[in-house]
Amino acid sequence: MCKILKGALVMLGLFAGCSENEATAQEPVEVAKGKVAVIYFSWSPDGNTRFAAETIAKKAEAKLFEIKAKTPYNSDFRACCDEAKPECYGKILRPIEKIEGLDLAAYDVVFFGTPNWWGTIAPPLRTFLAENAKALEGKTVALFQTHGGGGMQRLGKEFAEAVGEKVKVLAPKAFPGSSVRSATKALETFVTDRISIK
Ligand SMILES: Cc1cc2nc3c(=O)[nH]c(=O)nc-3n(C[C@H](O)[C@H](O)[C@H](O)COP(=O)(O)O)c2cc1C
Question: How many degrees, rounded to 5, is the angle at CA 67 between CA 65 and CA 68?
């Protein structure tokens, strides 16, 4: 039922707009082993972004951290869409839990993962970026996202805006959520196109 509803919403163009992934224009960034973190938010019971994050973390030999909203979103898809819509369009910062054991100072490269929500990054990720703006300065970051058919939409652009100018932003990539579990190779290539572990 949930999958049918999601498919219908995408078909109806509720999540309008679709753009290409940005190409990797540069050589992979060299990074020391152990200096990579993967930080993600995922909402659906399918855990599409979680799967992508786990696969990316394994390939990058990275520590994995999850962002959680202090007040979880409604577990019903349509209700969650309604709840998230004003936050996404208004760039409202949804309060998040403190992530136990995360010290950003220990990492040089951070991969960030989010589902595509209303064409942009999910509010809990926006909150994390805002709360950690200072700690992210000087680091290299890259966004990956999973989506329901809309592709990259505004995520790459708004992620880059959210991290600010003192952060090196590598090319983002979008993965269709429904087929992410058969995209292991593409997820691994996402990593090796961007970083080379010394
Ligand atoms: C609140 C909400 C808004 C969404 N908005 C979009 C959208 O604008 N474009 C799109 O392609 N998919 C959209 N989706 C679908 C999700 O991006 C997709 O199912 C994703 O893979 C879910 O990742 P998760 O399992 O990690 O939560 C939306 C889903 C939700 C719950």
Answer: 135
